[in-house]
Every structure is written in C-alpha cells, then in structure tokens.
C-alpha cells in the first residue's frame, strides 16, 4: 500500500516537472489553480447591486485573510474599551422602527471598543493610523453593532480588496518591518496603483491620524445603511459620533515621543478619565437621504471612498453616548468582544455599498477562528440582554444546555418551536429592494472619480493643517526606498493639488509634476477642519513643576481654581515625597522628572521654589521648551516666572504669567485653545 502511494506521488511530481512556469509572468489563480480574470471587483447583481454568495473567489480570498492571525485580530488588534449608556434625544420613528431609537429619553446599555488598525497588540497607541470606534448596543430586540472609524471614508471600494490594503499596510513579510506604520514601500506602492485610496490617504496624512485622546475623536460609520420605518419606507443613512470635548490631535514630534515614553497613552487616558468621573460623551448624528434622491449628488452615495458633505446633507443629532464604567477584565471583555456590521435590529438595514457587502461576510468569518468557533455569542461580553432561541447546536465552547430532542425546523414534537416571528410582531425582515442585473464583476462608472473629494478635503484644511499634511507625506513617502514608488505617489496626488504634490516632491527627491490633471473642485466644508471644533479646558491635564520653598498660598489657590474648571494636574519635582511651601503647606509629588515627560501633558505650569538645584533647573528648562515647540499653553507664577525670562518665553502667545483669579481665567482659556498655532517656534 505504501509502495503504491510512493509511486503515485512520484508520478505526480514527474507530471509537475512538465509544466514550465515563467516566474516573471505570474498569472493570478485561486488556491485551486483556477486562473481568475478579475481580482478587484466582487460578483454583483448588476453594477450597483448586492454581492452574490456564489462569488467563490471573494469568499476564498477573504476567508484566507480572516484566518491569517492567531489569536489576535488581523486588524484592530490594539484596543481598549469601556461600558456605558446611550440615551435617545428624540423619537426617530418617522425613519426607523428600531425600538432603542423610538422614544426620547430611552436608555440602552452599550460597550465601546477603541483601537488602532494596523499595529499588533503590543504596538503603541500614538502611531499614525486610522482608529476604530465600535459600539455594541444591548437592545431589547437583540444586539446592534455600530462599527465605525475616526475617518468617514475608506481606502477601497470593494470588500474583495480588503486583504490587499491590509497586506500592503502591515509590516513587510520578508523582515516584518515596520511595525504599526505606513511609512514603507508596499503601502505606498499600493496607494499609487490603487488610486481610489486618494481620499482616505489625505485623511491619514492629516492630524486626524494622531488623536490626542479617544475622548476627543470624531467617528463615522463609513458605509451607507438604511433606516426602515413601520410603514416599510426606507431612507439611506450614515452615522456619526461627535465628541463633546471637540476633535483634537497631537503633533507628529509629540506623537513619536509619546510612543516611547508611554505607549499606552490613549488607553491610559480613557481609563483614568472614567476612574476620575470625567465620563467621555459623544453625540450620535445621522445623515439621511430619501431614496428618490439616490442619484441627486455629484458622487455615488454608495461609494465608501466618498463622504456626504454636511453642507449638502446636514447631520441631525439624535442621542448621546456616555462611557461611565471601565472593564473588569481586559481579556474577557475587550479582547473577546465580537463586532459585526451585520448585527442589526428591525429598522436598520443594508445598502449595496460593495465594501459593506464584503464586511457582512468577513466579520463573522473572522470570529469563527479568533474566538474558537460559532458560539462566540455566548461569551458574556457578547451575550444579548434578551434570551435567544434557535436550532443551532454544539460546536466549540458551547455553554447553552439545550433540553429536549428537537433541533430542527419545522417540527411537531416541540409544537414547531422555536417559531419564526412575523414582521408586524417584531421579526426582522430584509428591506425588499428591487434588484435587476446581469451577474458581473464591474463597478458603476459613478465610482470612478477618485480625486474630487480628496480636493474637497484639501480645500477645507487650514494653513496649519495643510502644512501637517505636507509634512506627513514627506515623512511617510520619504521613508520609501524605491524612488519609482515615490515618483508615482507624487504624480498621483498632483491630481488632487499641484502645490501639495510639488511641496512633497521637493522634500523627497522626486520630480515635481509638470502636466498634472489637477482637480478643479473649489468647494470646501467647515465640518472637515479641526480648527472649527469645540474648545474646552475640561479634563485637560497640566504638569505642575514645583520644588521646596514655593509660595503655597498662591499655588493652592491656583490649583483649586484649575480643578474648579474641570482641569486635572500632576505635581512634578526632582524627588518623590512631599514638597513644602513657605507657609509650611505641602503637596505630594506625583512624578519625578524621570518618571514622566512634557509630551504627556496638555499644558505646563511652572511654580518653581526657593530651592532649585542644577538638576531641577535643567529639567524645568527642558519641560518648558518641549511644551513651547509643541504649541502647548504654558503658565508660570511666583518663582516660576524667572524660568520664562531665562528661556525668552514670556510674552509669547499662549504663555500666561501671574497669580490669583485673573491668572486662573487666562490660563484656563489658554488651555482650552489646545494649541497656539500662531506662536513663533524656531
């Protein structure tokens, strides 16, 4: 028997030798060797229709991708989470029969997970990346998952290309470098050869890619969904999360240093804020388009690389999310929570957005491997608050003990239970959209404009934000070793804006564009610039530099005043223990200069003291200059004012000195500004 197997194997090898393979002309095939004519478009019913289950190439490609990592998530591996509550502001029954949106004041428990996309679980929080914002609503009709990102568009239009963009973004396979970064050849090669990514890349190069805090991060549902009301009338809808603290970011030098000083910066910030009772709040907004207006815009509303400008489709605020409790166990909750855009409730349905269609398959497929089988819904953090009944049985990690001998539908032995629920009794029924078309791998021509909204985004940026984008492109593309890829990127983004491409080209050794087909879009949107966001000093953290011999009466008054404005602070000095003031009062030191860093604070307040060693003097100077060059507010009183004078900082924009109520007011206003961009920084 074994001899026959060996003969068969030898015969097989001999046959394979007869195939002449030209490695320079590799042809795309499935894993079964079937040559494929298309690798960028899913099989759909008509060019704008839904993706078909029979698309074996899509399912093979995405299934293989979903199962590439064990046990962490393939993407969004680095995350943190919290429990909370969602409260509806007003009834949305006009648009949706979803019960958790049916009545003003209705409250629903939620669980929200924030994450970076590219990095492994052990990567840093402050890398340049897209951020995830996924929320599970534990409603009376079952779990509803709103899976969002902090950018409203995505790199690709079709879910079949998701493995490609992630492969390109991940560390390069020959050496697994770099970690959690797009500053390498394969990512930018993908961008240059997949120009639908232009709009998302503009967002990725903007300050949005390095948020100051998850508490100060806007988020978007990206895909186009449907609201369906009790009468069966549907509207297209997009979802937005608007942070009550405004949208604020780090500067790049600061983000890089934080990654080394405190790689857990964002997750620590979220955890500490909740522990202190500074509960993060976000308002839920929706953009709604009537079905009759589906083709009324100069972009395709189903294209996930496009946003709906808020000036054209206003955002209606319909409720508020408050995160008010940290997890009890990180692994059991944060790591094991499973989100899926297909977890919906009656009144929320899908569109033919081709990226969404792919996600509806991929998310469940991923959980099957990552959480060990089909029963991940029985893990406590995923379990709905309502009882569930069906005929699904067994599988890995089954916890439900089903009684009786019936596990099929239809039946008479169990009185035909569990029974389907009619739509008018709360059962879910898919929206009956008329679909007509040939089975094709095509995309509507309405998806072909890749640069107009990228130009809209550029037009909407302030001068400071534009410079950030130029610097980000210069750093990221400048890290690419292949000069031909650098040139391709420059040529590509000349289609967005020639000045942008020229500035980047000059910085990275590429040839500036000469005959660019630059977008002619002149429109802008105030909603896209962070300069127009809310500004508040609440929950900001101040580093207070202090030493023995400080004026305790004045300082205590100021610290109490800052607390009254919702500002937190940490005492920093040369040594641990207590520092003593001139009147005998004392303050406990939270950090020495070596256990913290100026990049970890929103502002620096220098008090000083009559005792100041060379070490104290040197470190105070370092803290002031780091805060100053990162455009942060600086305060000083009493002995601390001389440090401003020595470093020529007094009188600068965003630098406040003095004492008493006037100082508290002015310093609070300076902190609320977040950054003082008009400051002259050498």
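Q: What amino acid sequence fits the structure above?
A:
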């Amino acid at each position: 028997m074994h001899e026959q197997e060996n003969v068969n194997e030898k015969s097989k090898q001999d046959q394979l030798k007869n195939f002449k393979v030209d490695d320079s002309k590799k042809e795309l095939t499935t894993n079964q060797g079937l040559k494929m004519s298309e690798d960028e478009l899913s099989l759909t019913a008509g060019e704008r229709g839904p993706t078909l289950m029979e698309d074996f190439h899509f399912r093979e490609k995405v299934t293989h991708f979903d199962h590439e990592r064990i046990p962490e998530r393939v993407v969004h591996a680095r995350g943190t989470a919290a429990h909370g509550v969602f409260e509806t502001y007003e009834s949305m029954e006009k648009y949706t029969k979803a019960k958790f949106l049916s009545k003003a004041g209705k409250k629903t428990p939620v669980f929200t997970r924030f994450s970076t996309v590219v990095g492994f679980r052990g990567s840093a929080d402050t890398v340049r990346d897209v951020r995830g914002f996924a929320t599970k609503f534990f409603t009376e009709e079952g779990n509803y998952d709103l899976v969002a990102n902090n950018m409203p568009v995505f790199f690709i239009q079709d879910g079949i290309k998701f493995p490609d963009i992630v492969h390109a973004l991940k560390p390069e396979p020959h050496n697994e470098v770099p970690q959690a970064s797009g500053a390498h050849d394969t990512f930018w090669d993908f961008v240059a050869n997949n120009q639908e990514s232009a709009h998302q890349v503009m967002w990725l190069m903007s300050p949005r890619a390095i948020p100051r805090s998850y508490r100060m991060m806007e988020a978007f549902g990206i895909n186009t969904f449907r609201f369906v009301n009790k009468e069966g009338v549907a509207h297209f809808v997009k979802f937005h999360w608007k942070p009550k603290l405004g949208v604020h970011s780090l500067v790049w030098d600061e983000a890089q240093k934080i990654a080394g000083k405190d790689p857990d910066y964002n997750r620590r910030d979220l955890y500490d804020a909740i522990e202190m009772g500074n509960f993060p709040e976000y308002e839920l907004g929706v953009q709604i388009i009537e079905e009759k207006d589906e083709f009324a815009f100069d972009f395709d509303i189903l294209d996930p690389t496009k946003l709906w400008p808020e000036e054209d489709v206003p955002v209606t605020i319909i409720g508020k999310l408050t995160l008010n409790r940290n997890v009890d166990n990180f692994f059991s909750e944060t790591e094991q929570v499973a989100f899926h855009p297909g977890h919906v409730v009656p009144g929320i349905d899908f569109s033919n957005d081709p990226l969404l269609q792919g996600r509806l398959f991929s998310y469940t497929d991923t959980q099957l491997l990552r959480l060990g089988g089909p029963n991940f819904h029985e893990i406590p953090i995923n379990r709905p608050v309502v009882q569930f009944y069906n005929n699904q049985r067994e599988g890995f990690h089954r916890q439900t003990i089903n009684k009786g001998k019936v596990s099929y539908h239809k039946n008479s032995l169990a009185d035909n239970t569990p029974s389907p629920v009619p739509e008018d009794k709360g059962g879910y029924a898919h929206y009956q959209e008329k679909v007509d078309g040939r089975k094709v791998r095509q995309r509507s021509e309405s998806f072909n404009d890749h640069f107009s909204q990228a130009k809209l985004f550029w037009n909407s940026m302030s001068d400071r934000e534009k410079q950030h984008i130029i610097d980000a492109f210069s750093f990221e593309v400048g890290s690419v070793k292949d000069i031909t890829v650098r040139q391709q990127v420059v040529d590509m983004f000349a289609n967005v804006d020639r000045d942008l491409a020229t500035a980047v080209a000059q910085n990275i050794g590429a040839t500036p564009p000469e005959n660019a087909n630059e977008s002619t879009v002149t429109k802008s949107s105030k909603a896209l610039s962070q300069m127009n966001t809310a500004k508040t000093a609440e929950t900001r953290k101040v580093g207070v530099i202090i030493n023995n011999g400080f004026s305790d009466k004045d300082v205590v008054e100021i610290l109490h005043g800052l607390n009254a404005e919702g500002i937190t602070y940490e005492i920093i000095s040369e040594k641990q223990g207590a520092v003593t003031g001139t009147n005998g009062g004392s303050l406990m030191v939270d950090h020495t200069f070596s256990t913290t860093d100026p990049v970890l604070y929103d502002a620096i307040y220098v008090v000083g003291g009559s005792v100041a060693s060379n070490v104290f003097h040197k470190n105070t100077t370092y803290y002031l200059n780091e805060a100053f060059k990162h455009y942060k507010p600086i305060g000083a009183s009493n002995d601390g004012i001389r440090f401003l004078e020595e470093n020529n900082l007094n009188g600068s924009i965003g630098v406040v000195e003095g004492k008493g109520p006037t100082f508290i007011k002015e310093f609070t206003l300076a902190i609320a500004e977040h950054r003082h961009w008009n400051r002259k920084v050498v």
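Q: And what stands out in the fold?
A: Residues 354-370 form the longest helix (17 residues).
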